Amino acid sequence: MRSTLNVAWLALLLAVGCAGRQELETPDYEAIYDVPLEEMWPSVREYFTDANLPYREDRGSLVLETEWKQEFGGSKIAGYWHRYMVIGKRETPTKSKLWITRITKSVNKTLSQPGKELDWGVFRGPGGNDGVALSPEDDAARLAFPVGENAFYMESGQGTRDLTMEWRVFRGVMPKLAKKQPVSAQPQVAKPAPAFTECGQSILGLKKQAKAGGVMLLGELHGTREVPRFIAQTVCQLVTSGMPVTVGLELPVENEERITAFLQSQGGEVDWLKLMEAPFWRSPYPDGRGSEAVANMLEQLRQLRAQGLDVAVFVYDHPKLSGQKREDALTQTVQAQVKAKPERFHLVVSGNIHSRTAKGLPWDAQYMPMGYLLKDQLDDVTSLDMAYDSGTAWICAANKQSNKLDCGVKETKGKDNGDRFFVHAWSSPNLEGYHGVFYVGHVTASEPAILKGLGNPDAAPVSGSTSGL
Question: What SUPFAM superfamilies does the record tag this protein with (predicted)?
């Protein structure tokens, strides 16, 4: 294994910054504590207490399990919850490590493989050297899910070892352990606050593609739950590492003031009413951009801003234009935003025609998409196409019989590459000008937000729905 106390201090020096900063770079090896397990464990307990992650503990086995914590906090729409199983392991008599498993649950049954539901709990009977085994939780523990307007039993769960969380705890614990070491040649480092923001499972490959000053174009299929969640998780994981992020959304520019006001608000009922009053949310042909998932994403970004994290949002669509004139207008709006704040990372989301960086379409060889125009005007543009497993999406398609748009839940055909979000770049762009893909797993349709009661004080409580994000 790699890591001594000197290596630990080097990692700590790189990690310490503003309070609550969560380092983006995660080593691909285990964090080894250069102290015995019994000496390390009290600092682990203190970390989770200071990070506001309540836990229960099996003291005899040096195992603890945190309570459920929702991504981004208590949003208006049912979402995802995570808890951590933390196991202290003895590497040698004088060295130790942690194994941390992240357990995710949601009403979204796409997480679950039939017949393979996982329930985790501290097990005090036989079941291994560490005293931990998989077993059904008792009835009391089954009721330990979040309460309030999102109170319901989450019907799927998965557990995955979380190396990112292991290193996050390591960086938070090391200052306490270092106080017990000889101080002869050790640099003095300020104690980092372990303030914790739940950003979901780390997106694989994201850290290689995201950098300050860069522009990442995401070409999406509108109308899924997964893409807005991918965006919110991406932003969360970047801003908690100290990188300022601006999100560009393909929504009408007339909505800029409303969205900015909402992001700066307290997120109360009146704030939601003002946001949802815009005609955009009530379009007779809702194409997926005004979905429940998009509304929830705005709430999640608002919550990140409320924590003091550096998140900004702009909108750039010009729906009154069409064809090349529209692409030109989209380009000008995005370009102006990027050049006004060149030090930020810009994440620009659009339908997957606009984000292409190659000239031409099958029906128009001279067509110049937004991505094609931006790459010649900006220094660092990466364009990623959406990859996904088969499922459903809220899509507007032409009805040949009525010559009108037919909007609703449609089946989508994709390829199964697992259930973990990831970003992958190719060695060279493809024929459409994409530099790689962002993968969001099995996709599920997200209905128009206005149909789910958001912004409508007379609607039934959202917690009564079974279609959470």
Answer: EreA/ChaN-like (SSF159501)
